[in-house]
Design brief:
By secondary structure, the chain is α/β, with parallel strands linked by helices. The protein has seven helices and seven strands. It starts with a helix and ends with a strand. Bound molecules: S-adenosylmethionine. S-adenosylmethionine (SAM) binds next to α1 and α2.
């Protein structure tokens, strides 16, 4: 099987990162609406990170929010990060392999779209997001298109020749509770007729 980061490195040469951006945008917009409402409700500025950021389009979108103090993107595909830096010299873009990369600082909002299931042990990543990446009282929002109920997505590992960890909606949500998230809520984002939509999950790290 190929490494996911090698596959997505190649996609940049063919412009497929921009197709992904267009395809993911409706679900991400819903996810960000929910999450930005949480982190900007008290009027204090927030720090944002996007894990598996691809070409960094979500970093640039959130950086434009009036309450955003800083925005950083992290991805293991060098070409994705090179493209992000080429487009935008203001925000931070970092080559990072997960789950082993530890954050340079804590973030108030961690976002991730279509990344976490490429990992062999997504729960380890979720635990790290909760323990290492988030500040106390911070929020995470994650979008997943490959899940057991989305039958169309079950052929993707073979089609791409890439490992994907397959869980049901119930299993994903249980994982969030197991690693310590509170106020966990899930919904199907970006749903069109006949399609399953993105399994979107949002949750909060305890204030302590
Ligand atoms: C389906 S793309 C999504 C990109 C972006 N979030 C978007 O919506 O356009 C998945 C991204 O996760 C990155 N990725 C996959 N496995 C990774 C790993 N183990 N460490 C770091 N990045 C990884 C890939 O390089 C790729 O850019």
């Amino acid at each position: 099987m190929k490494q996911a980061t090698d596959v997505f490195n190649e996609w940049v040469h063919r412009g497929k990162d921009e197709g992904m951006e267009r395809g993911h945008a409706p679900a991400v917009k819903e996810m960000l609406d929910a999450a930005l409402n949480k982190v900007s409700s008290n009027g204090t500025a927030f720090e944002f990170a996007d894990l598996g950021c691809g070409n960094g389009w979500v970093v640039r979108m959130v950086a434009a929010h009036a309450g955003c103090a800083s925005a950083d993107g992290f991805d293991g595909a060098q070409n994705m990060i090179a493209k992000a830096k080429n487009i935008d010299s203001k925000n931070g873009y970092h080559i990072a392999m997960f789950p082993q990369t530890k954050p340079p600082k804590k973030y108030d909002l961690v976002h991730s779209m279509e990344f976490i299931y490429y990992l062999r042990e997504p729960k380890v990543m979720l635990q790290s997001i909760h323990d290492d990446w988030l500040s106390n009282g911070g929020w995470a929002v994650i979008g997943i298109d490959h899940y057991a109920e989305n039958e169309e997505s079950l052929s993707w590992p073979e089609a791409l020749d890439v490992h994907m960890s397959t869980f049901s909606e119930k299993q994903w949500i249980a994982m969030w509770h197991e690693v310590g998230f509170e106020d966990v809520r899930s919904w199907r984002a970006g749903q069109q007729s006949g399609k399953s939509g993105t399994l979107a999950i949002i949750g909060k790290k305890n204030q302590k």
